[in-house]
Amino acid sequence: MKIALCILTRNELECLKIIFPQLPKPGPQAGFDEWVGIDGGSTDGTVEFLQAQGVPVVGQSRRGRGDAFLQAFSKVDCDAYIFFSPDGNEDPKDLPKFRAHLEAGHDLVIASRMMKGAWNEEDSEWFKWRKWANNAFNWLANRMFGKRMAYVTDAINGYRAITRTAAQKLQLDSLDYTIEYQMTIRALRARLAIAEFPTHEGERVAGETGAPSLPTGIRFVKKLWSEWTSRLEFK
Ligand SMILES: Nc1nc2c(ncn2[C@@H]2O[C@H](COP(=O)(O)OP(=O)(O)O)[C@@H](O)[C@H]2O)c(=O)[nH]1
Ligand SMILES: [Mg+2]
Question: What residues are paired with 84 via a beta bridge?
Answer without folding.
Answer: 7
